[in-house]
Amino acid sequence: MSFVTIFYGISFYVATLILFIGLGYRIYEYSIIPSPLKIPTPPAPKTKSGVAIRLFREVVFFESLFSATKWTWLFGWLFHFALLLAALRHLRYFTDPVWFWVSWEIVQAAGHYAAYIMIFGLIGLLARRIFVDRVRYISNPSDYLMLILIISIALTGLLMKWFHTDVYAVKMFFIGLMYFQWSELPSDFILLLHLSLVLLLMIIFPYSKLLHAPGLFFSPTRNQTDNARDQRHISDWAKKLESKK
Amino acid sequence: MAVKEFEKPILKEYTPIPELVEEATSHLAPFKSKEEFQKSLGYPGELVENWQEVALGKMGDLLKKYRSLRVYMDSCIQCGACTDKCHYYLGTKDPKNMPVGRQNLMRGVYRKHFTLPGKFFPKLVGAVDLTKEVLDDWYSYYHQCSQCRRCAVFCPIGIDTAEISMAAREIMDSVGVGQKYCNEIIGKANKIGNNLGLPKPALADTLEGLEEDVEEETGIDVKFPLDVKGADVLLITPSADFFAEPHVDGLIGYAKVFHEAGMSWTLSSYASEAANFGMFIGSYDNMRKLALRIRQAALDLGVKRIVFGECGHAWRVAYSFLNTLAGPFDFLDPRYPVPQHICEVTHDLINKNILKFDKSANDGKVITFHDSCNVARASGMGDVMGGQFSLPRDIIKATTNNFYDMDDDTIMEKTFCCGGGGGLLTDDLIELRMKGAQPRMEALKRVVEDHGVTHMAAICAICKSQFSKAFQYYGFELDQIISLHQLVGDALIMTKK
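The joint structure predicted for all components is written out below.
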């Protein structure tokens, strides 16, 4: 085993643990904190299925953002959609045999072109941060760095089109990590850069604003049913006030 | 203390998104609450010595009690979607009045004291210590938020700045820095039963006067009952309705509706207030205490239904919170929702053909309707989604011939706050109130010019009071703001003597 293989192998284990345990812990924390009052915003559904549809529309179409600002919606939605396509393309590195639909030409090609869309969307978001005075005012260094990090991941991914790497060996490396039968990782510079940036993204996920992903599902203004008059919505800590009397 | 002169905004055709003017309204902050009022609500009388420790302890406590606060501290992407949505930002140009700017005042402290990146890399993520300067900023800018939730409608994650400003006010109260206007009012409501401090004899006197006025005008003996045991309906209405134009015309309208429908109803001197300022200061305890007065009054009077008069945040507390705070109301008639809004009652009676109107009585008026923020964005009406928008409009259309809505971006769930909600309806914040009213005034000006609108109807005591000031300030006529139930009362054909 080369030093590179051992280093990245261990790093991916650590980063995966941080990502899943960290994110799992956040989700656990969110789920045990009560929402003591009903605060859904309109149009507030009256049923649970209505809430599911509302969340679906938020997650898939970014409906609220669309009504707020078309440019941010365009760049943001393109970026997230492209991210999904790119992720699907990458499934071939983690499935053996590759799931049949992942190997479809259309999934692979879409995942490739998605990189360009992703970069376009992210540069749009970066431009807004820089040129719109209101967005510039609220931007911290971490907000710029986050965009630059993801742009770099997309760029280094794309660059491997021209700076060839043995993708089969890469796949074997990841499959090996998954089944604890390690195999060598090619030590091409662009590949290692790409993987390093992804590692960084995995590690900061549970500690950053990327928590907006689980956050949306736990947002009371969006996930509550509008039925306060029909059903009491009392939290445990509020119940204790009642027994005090 | 005299209020400083300030530059009067010029109303434009469409509200432009202003360029930032940093610290434009950092000088604005409401008067602080005196020791006696702080103490009566269970808060320290003045800034406690170890206030940082207490404040951070309180913040940690709230982060465990309110999922909204915790999720909203973590989840903001700083995307900027909300930055041009707040009427106070549009009116004052101060970036700390952008919803995210306001939130970040707390988020910076949260990151510093409750997250790892904030501890290790404060500069990177904008984390700050809770210093006296930060506390002053909190006091200033969390009292420049009317908790209207317009930003929450547009946020892709649904982050609600009202949740954050309520938490901030609760934290500030817990270290002894409270707002005079809200805390004095809560004190009065706790002691006397209403925000104006009207004791029972004064209330009885007022109601008697109203009976005489209505009889003189219509020849019909419309009653305004107080503390009548065994009445069917307990009416809970903002105390402003007892006191001044244009509110009182709304109360007359409710009374006429009850009279014509032959419903037995009563007011309560113990719970003579719909408004619940406990919500504005983010205090579950205080909100609950006030809500329990209503439960007690309903029990004492043995009523079957509870109906709320026209009041925005009161309706939020009533519709969304009352069952939780002071329920269950299993001792009331299960055929009716608890509580009901007066608009639901009137709407229902119109649908059943029990109320008939002579619309021509309102022909001198061309009406538009102002959706009050707490009704529009924090509650509902009837059993349909969006009933809080359609019911009042149905009633207006049933009682008048001339109705025009303002621009789509300024009504229903996108309505602009009047500028005086959230406990800011106080003269020490007059500059903020007038600047915050600007987007609504601009939308109004357009329908006045395009459709000859003469009157704006509203169903919120705060909106009505705020607009009475703002209309004069911006060159409209004072009496152009009216209660929705004034339209009802004026057009109602009274068949019962």
